[in-house]
Amino acid sequence: MSTTSKTAHHEQLLERMATRNGADLDLARQSGLIDGTEIVEALVACMGCSDAGGCKSRLDRDVPGFPDYCRNVSMIQRVEALTH
Hints:
It comes from Boseongicola aestuarii. Pfam families: DUF6455. The structure is a single chain. This protein is mainly α. The protein has one domain (about 5-84). It is about 65% helix and about 0% strand. It is built from five helices and no strands. The longest helix is centred in the first third of the chain and has 18 residues, at about 5-20. It is globular, with a radius of gyration of 12 Å. The termini are far apart.
C-alpha cells in the first residue's frame, strides 16, 4: 500500500470511528475545539495501529464502542463531550 493510500485508509478509519462514537471531528476543528495538529497526531497514531484490519471489520459490522487497542479513544471521547 502506498503512503498516500495508507494515509487515506486511516483517515477513513479515524473518521468512521469518531462518527460511530458520536464525535464530529470536522465540526470540532471548524469550531476551534481541536486544531489541525491534533488531527494529524490522531492520524499518525491511527497509522501505527496494531490491527487496522480488525478496526475496519469492527466498523463494517457496526460493533459499538472502541477496540481495546484504539490509540485515539481519549481524543474521540473528548471531542464527543465538547460537541454534545
